[in-house]
Specification:
By secondary structure, the chain is of the alpha+beta class. The chain folds into 6 domains: 59 residues, Winged helix-like DNA-binding domain superfamily/Winged helix DNA-binding domain (Arc Repressor Mutant, subunit A, Orthogonal Bundle); 62 residues, OB fold (Dihydrolipoamide Acetyltransferase, E2P) (Beta Barrel); 64 residues, OB fold (Dihydrolipoamide Acetyltransferase, E2P) (Beta Barrel); 315 residues, no CATH class; 49 residues, no CATH class; 82 residues, Beta Barrel (OB fold (Dihydrolipoamide Acetyltransferase, E2P)). It is built from 17 helices and 34 strands. The strands form 10 sheets. A 5-stranded antiparallel β-sheet has the order 6-5-4-7-8, with no helix packed on it. The protein has a 5-stranded antiparallel β-sheet with strand order 11-10-9-12-13. The chain has a 5-stranded mixed β-sheet with strand order 14-21-20-17-16, with helices on one face. A hairpin with a 2-residue loop joins strand 27 and strand 28. Helix 11 packs across helix 12. The longest helix has 41 residues.
Length: 697
């Protein structure tokens, strides 16, 4: 049996590329095993681990300045290759060097200039966009599809015979049958003609098509879910700690349907004993079963304003694995002891069974702990001491985390209020209160405990990492902050960000400034390599607490279970994890970003529909962004953003100053700055582009 690691080690240790014959000799491969080696080398080339040159010799990708990652395209044609390896800066790819790569494609790129991280794509390893949604344009001899997705700038050629009788201007779903190559555009065929949206629900359906989100589970997955036995038998309780005698609650939003975490607390002599119980999804979903493979491909649940596209079938996500009140549920518990200063006194992990006393909401818990509402105090009288103890511990942990440099961004999020017909009747700032903080603190503590323990055991896991921001970007932010605030900053450093944010608590520009800081930072991602979590100031961090809706959490659950079993995870098991985790991390990070984009597009679409009947009306707002093209404004009456194009600012010629993010009139010297107040008129609502266009008053 030829081991991939052995082949890779030999190729890595050579001082020059290796031919196939040299590899067979070094590996002592028998004649009848040569086919297996050829297949393995092809697979390794496809994965981007090694490369084959024109002389059919193999080298490590890193030795020839090649890196693998996924291509994040820009609407203007250029893009960036996002690498999976922590510490590596993204690679800028000019439009002429994209090699026809499309958004989210997995690619191999060559770094051509290390100082600026400019490069070119040399190979497309895996195509991400098999289906596209867009508008048909008739060129006479054929059709061309203009994709709705702004990040895909390549038009798709569609022969008339493959148009399915669609007409110019129709919105359609197209399957790509031939991907672009050597200057030739991609070729496709129309699969479905989409009706013109007449209501917001149609728009959400468009987004599901546009992002190729799954509409239903395959029958094999549904059938497998139906066979799962949900009865709690004595056999299922073997080697499982019984926590049913401990007061336990779930705390979630009013609309939540899947409850994957519950909490309990006890007063101990030294301080507090906190239990975080997480749905034991891994018990019901073994590795590589049909449900697991589907969940791995989806990566995450997608939360749209009017529906959820779950990672797991409803039989699991909303029933068997959901920690409903008053019923027994199998869980995995993280038991943590803290002293009165929040210092960790010890932790243990074990499979468990719970019976949640109550399904509580953030609103109710806030009403009890912060508002003391008599009706709620009476209704939950038996749980009040526990909730008060939780509130106590939350404040201690929050203060401790803040002290170590954790960043408290806490930006407002939009919430779309839908009427019974599914139409948006208001768009507001989603409520956030102390109860949200309480659950977040407890989940962070559990995630850190799991990551630190597994790391101490030298067991490979999926970390949730967040790298430090680039110094150059921070220096630019410091210049902008100097222009728009009175906070004195000579040079902004990663360690100084927390101090800046803490000084903004009473600043009216807080949200705008935090948004600017956030844009300078790298996105968090999943990785088998630990570099810590900068935003949380955490040395060890993973996702463990939401296995119903995030695949990495399910992976970590399985690893923890195996590590706790007699004998733990042996060296062979560790090698297997080392092989599989990078691909899972890559796909999970990619699917998470896609889900976030789909969720943002859904909000943008409903914002546009909500503003359709307000064209011509005037609103006051706040400037939240400025570039050379114009001004982005957030309205004060509704949590809605729109754009004021500089070409529509006809009272003067405006000059953009990048360093301070301002637009200044050349003649009248009228100045627009980030954070400034402005009155605008709704001139146009583009439901296709999901944009609200303002005019200046």
């Amino acid at each position: 049996m030829i081991e991939k690691e052995t082949v890779l080690t030999i190729i890595n240790n050579r001082k020059k590329p290796a031919s196939f014959k040299e590899l067979t000799e070094l590996l002592e491969v028998k004649k009848n095993d040569e086919t297996q080696l050829k297949k393995m080398l092809r697979k390794m080339c496809k994965e981007g681990v090694i490369v084959r040159n024109k002389k059919f010799q193999y080298s490590p990708a890193s030795e020839v300045n090649l890196v693998t990652g996924y291509f994040e395209a820009h609407k203007n044609g250029f893009g960036f290759v996002i690498t999976a390896k922590p510490g590596e800066r993204d690679i800028f790819i000019p439009q002429r060097k994209t090699m026809t790569a499309m958004n989210n494609d997995r690619v191999m790129a060559r770094i051509e200039r290390e100082s600026t991280r400019d490069g070119s794509i040399v190979k497309i390893l895996e195509r991400a966009n098999t289906f596209l949604v867009g508008t048909l344009e008739d060129s006479g001899a054929a059709f061309f599809l203009k994709p709705n997705n702004k990040m895909i700038s390549i038009e798709v050629y569609i022969p008339k015979k493959d148009s399915k009788k669609a007409h110019h201007g129709d919105t359609v779903t197209v399957q790509i049958t031939e991907f672009p190559e050597s200057g030739r555009p991609p070729k496709g065929k129309v699969l479905k003609i989409l009706k013109t949206p007449t209501e917001p629900n149609d728009e959400i359906n468009y987004i599901i098509e546009e992002f190729n989100l799954p509409k239903r589970f395959p029958s094999r997955v549904i059938n497998q879910a139906k066979t799962i036995d949900d009865k709690i038998t004595p056999e299922k309780l073997e080697n499982r700690k019984d926590c049913r005698n401990i007061n336990t609650v779930t705390i979630d939003g009013e609309q939540a349907r899947d409850f994957d975490d519950a909490v309990s607390i006890e007063r101990i002599k030294q301080g507090y004993k906190l239990y975080v119980h997480i749905a034991d999804v891994g018990y019901y979903v073994p590795m590589d079963c049909d449900i697991d493979l589907e969940a791995r491909e989806r990566g995450t649940s997608v939360y749209l304003p009017d529906r959820v596209i779950p990672m797991l079938p409803k039989q699991l996500s909303e029933d068997i694995c959901s920690l409903k009140p008053k019923v027994d549920r199998l869980t995995f518990t993280v038991e943590m002891d803290f002293d009165l200063d929040g210092k960790d006194l010890g932790v243990s992990f074990y499979p468990s069974i719970i019976n949640s006393n109550e399904r509580m909401t953030y609103t109710d818990v806030f009403g009890i702990l912060s508002e003391g509402k008599p009706k709620l105090l009476k209704k939950y009288a038996a749980l009040i001491p526990d909730l008060e103890l939780m509130g106590e511990l939350c404040k201690i942990l929050s203060k401790k985390r803040s002290k170590r440099g954790s960043l408290d961004f806490d930006l407002p999020e939009p919430e779309v209020l839908l009427n019974l017909q599914g139409n948006p009747e208001n768009i507001i700032i989603a409520e956030r209160n102390f109860a949200h903080t309480l659950i977040e603190e407890f989940m962070i503590a559990a995630n850190e405990a799991v990551a630190e323990w597994l790391s101490s055991m030298d067991i490979p896991i999926l970390y949730r990492i967040h790298e430090k921001p680039n110094k150059d970007k921070l220096e630019n932010i410091a210049k902008i902050l100097k222009c728009i605030t009175d906070i004195k900053i000579k040079k902004l450093t990663p360690s100084g960000i927390a101090g800046v944010i803490s000084k903004l608590s009473q600043n009216p520009l807080r949200d705008v400034i935090i948004y600017i800081i956030l844009r300078s930072m790298k996105q968090a991602q999943y990785s088998p390599y630990n570099v810590g979590h900068f935003g949380l100031a955490s040395e060890y961090y993973c996702h463990f607490t939401s296995p119903i809706r995030r695949y990495p959490d399910l992976v970590v659950h399985r690893i923890l279970r195996d590590a706790l079993n007699d004998g733990g995870i042996n060296e062979k098991g560790k090698r297997e994890l080392t092989k599989t985790l990078p691909l899972i991390a890559f796909n999970s990070s990619k699917m998470e970003r896609m889900a976030e984009r789909a969720e943002r597009e859904a909000i943008a679409a409903l914002r546009a529909w909500f503003m359709l009947d307000k064209v011509g009306e005037e609103f006051s707002g706040t400037i939240i962004g400025i570039n050379a093209n114009g001004i982005r404004i957030r309205l004060n009456d509704f949590y809605i953003e729109g754009f004021l194009h500089v070409s529509d600012m006809t009272d003067d010629f405006y000059i953009f100053h990048e360093e301070c993010l301002t637009l200044t009139g050349r003649n009248k010297r009228r100045k627009f700055s980030v954070g400034g107040a402005i009155t605008v008129r709704v001139d146009r609502v583009d439901t296709v582009g999901r944009e609200i266009i303002f005019g200046i008053v």
